[in-house]
Amino acid sequence: MKSTHRDWKERLTSVEQEFVELWGSMSSLWGINPTMARIHGIMFITGQTMTMDDIMERLAISRGNVSMNLTKLLEWGLVKRVHRPGDRRDYYESIRDVWELFTIVATQRKRREIDPVLSTLRRCRDELSPEALGARAEEDFVQDRAKRINDLLKFLSLMDSLSQKFFESHKSLRQAVDLLAGDGGEE
Amino acid sequence: MKSTHRDWKERLTSVEQEFVELWGSMSSLWGINPTMARIHGIMFITGQTMTMDDIMERLAISRGNVSMNLTKLLEWGLVKRVHRPGDRRDYYESIRDVWELFTIVATQRKRREIDPVLSTLRRCRDELSPEALGARAEEDFVQDRAKRINDLLKFLSLMDSLSQKFFESHKSLRQAVDLLAGDGGEE
DNA sequence: CTATAATTTCACGGCTTCCTGAAAGGATAA
DNA sequence: TTATCCTTTCAGGAAGCCGTGAAATTATAG
C-alpha cells in the first residue's frame, strides 16, 4: 500500500494514451489527419497548456511535424496560442467545451467540403437547364438527370438548413439538455 | 440547327462526368474511397443498370478494381446486383432514393466508426472509476480527466440518440417536407 | 547590433493505400 | 464432361500522403 503513487500515475497516463489514440482514430470522421487529431487530443484530455517540446516528447514526433499540425489546428480554431510572461516559448491549449468543439468541426467541414459540393451541383443543374440546352432540355434523358440533381439539391439544402438551425440554437439546446439530464451520467 | 444531336449528347455526358468527379471528391465525407464513390456516382446519375465492362469503360479503370469496389458497395448496401434473363453477366444498379442513400451512409458510418469510439470511451471512463483506482480516483488529476470523458460521453450519446430519432422519423419527415416544399425547386 | 532561442519551411525518404493485370475460381451451355 | 464466359483474388508496382531533420526565418534579450 506504499508504492501506489507511481501506480496510479502510470494508470492515468495510460488512459490518456488510450484517449489520444482514440482521438487519432477518429480523425477521418473529422476530416483531419491522425497526428493533428492526436496533438489536439493530448491537450484536450489533459487540459494543459503545452509547448511544442511537451508535445514532441509526449507523442514522440518531430518538431516540424508538431509545428505544421499546430498551424492547422490554429487555422481550424480548435487550439489557441497563449503566452506566459517571461517565457519566450509559445504555449498552446485546446478549446475545452465539447459543444464548441463539435460546432467548430462541423462548421469547418461544411465550409470546406459541403459548400463546394453544393455549388458544383448547382452548376450541373444549370448546365441541364433549358437556358443552356434549349429545346433539348425536354429530352427524357436530360429530364431524368436533371431530376436526380434537383432531388439531391433539395435534400442537401434541407439538411444544410436543419443543421444551421441546430447549431444556432445549440446554446439553448444545451441548457435544456443540462437541465433535463441533471448531472446523472450518460445513459 | 442540324448537328445539335451530337452536341447535346456530349453536353449531357460531360455533365455526368462532372457529377461523377464531384461524387468522387465527396468520398472522404462518406468515409469511402474515391473510386468506390465514382462507381456509385455513375450508376446513380445515369440511373442505369450496368455491367462491370460498362463501368470499366466509362471510368477507364481495371476489371479488378471495379470488382473489388463493387463488392464493397454491395456490402454497404449502396448498390444492388440484378440479373437479366438470358444474360450471364451480372448487372448492378444504385439505390435511387436520396434519403435512403443518406440513411445507409450514416448508419454504416455510425456502426463502423462511432460505435467503436463510444465503447472505447466507456472503457476509459471505467478505468478512471473508483472501482478501478480505489481512493486515488478522488485525486484532482483523475477527477479532471474523468469529467472530460464523461462530458464527451454525454454529448456523443445525446447526438447518437438525436440522430437515431431523426432517422426513425425520416419517412414522415420526408412526407412533411415534400408537402411543404411542393415541387417548387430547391431554395 | 549580435547572439541566442524559438519556430517555420521544405526536400527527401518511408509508408500506406490504391490499382493493375494475370491467374485462379465459378457458373452455364452444349 | 468440356468449353466458354464471367468474376474474384492477389502479388507486385505506382501514386500520394505523411513525417523527419536540417536549414532558413523570425523574435527576443543583452
Q: Overview of this structure, please?
A:
2 copies of one chain form a homodimer. The first copy, chain A, has a two-stranded antiparallel ribbon. In chain A, α1 (4-25) runs antiparallel to α3 (34-46), α3 (34-46) crosses α5 (63-76) and α6 runs antiparallel to α8. Mean pLDDT of chain A is 89; it is low at 183-187. With 187 residues, chain A is mainly alpha-helical. The first copy, chain A, has helices at residues 4-25, 27-30, 34-46, 52-59, 63-76, 98-127, 130-133, 140-168, 170-181, and strands at residues 79-82, 91-94. The interface between A and B is large, with 56 and 56 residues. Chain A binds a DNA duplex (30 and 30 nucleotides) through residues 33-35, 51-52, 61-65, 67-68, 71, 88-90.
What's a quick, concise take on this entry?
The structure is a homodimer of 187-residue chains. With 187 residues, the first copy, chain A, is mainly α.
Which percent band covers the strand fraction of chain A?
under 5%
Main beta sheet of chain A, described? 2 strands, antiparallel
Number-wise, the strands of chain A total: 2
What class would the helix/strand composition of chain A place it in? Answer: mainly alpha
Rounded to an integer in angstroms, the radius of gyration calculated over CA atoms of chain A is: 23 Å
Sheet with the most strands: spatial strand order of chain A: 1-2
Distance between the termini of chain A: 35 Å
**Distinct helical segment count of chain A:** 9
